[in-house]
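User: Can you predict the 3D structure for this chain?
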Amino acid sequence: MELNIILKPECTTCATPGSKKKVLEMISDLVASQYPELSSQEIFESLLTREKMGSTGIGNGIAIPHGRLDNIDTPIAVLIKCEQPIAFEAIDKQPVDILFALLVPSDQCQQHLSTLSAMAEKLSDKQTLKQLRRINDEQELYEVITA
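Assistant: Here is the predicted structure, written as C-alpha cells:
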C-alpha cells in the first residue's frame, strides 16, 4: 500500500513528547483529531497493549508502535520526529527520535505485517534517515517519507 494513502500530512509532526507514554498519547490524540469516529483512549489502549508485549523500538533511534482497531477499514499512519530523543526501551537500548505509528483494521493482519516491514526497510535506509533527522518542517518531513 502506498504510504501517502495511509499517512496524511496532518498526521506528520515534529515534537518533543518527553516520554514513551506521552508520545503514545500524542499519537492517539493526533489520530483522533483527524478521525473523529475514533476515540483517543481506544487508540492509546491499542498501542499500549502492543507495547506490553515488547517494545516496538527497533533500534537506531527508530520505533514503530502499532495496534489493531475494530472500527477502521483502512490503515492509519502517523510520523513523529522527536526534537529530543526519548527513552523507548528499544532493542539496542538507545533513545528514539523517529516514530512511525501504524493502526490497522483487526481483520487485516497480513497487510499489517507487510506495511510494517516496508516501513522498517524504508527507515533502515541511511540516506532517508539522515534526511528525516535534519528536517524540522512537517511538510518537508511528509514529503521525504512519502517519496
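The chain is about 45% helix and 25% strand. The chain has one domain: 3-146.
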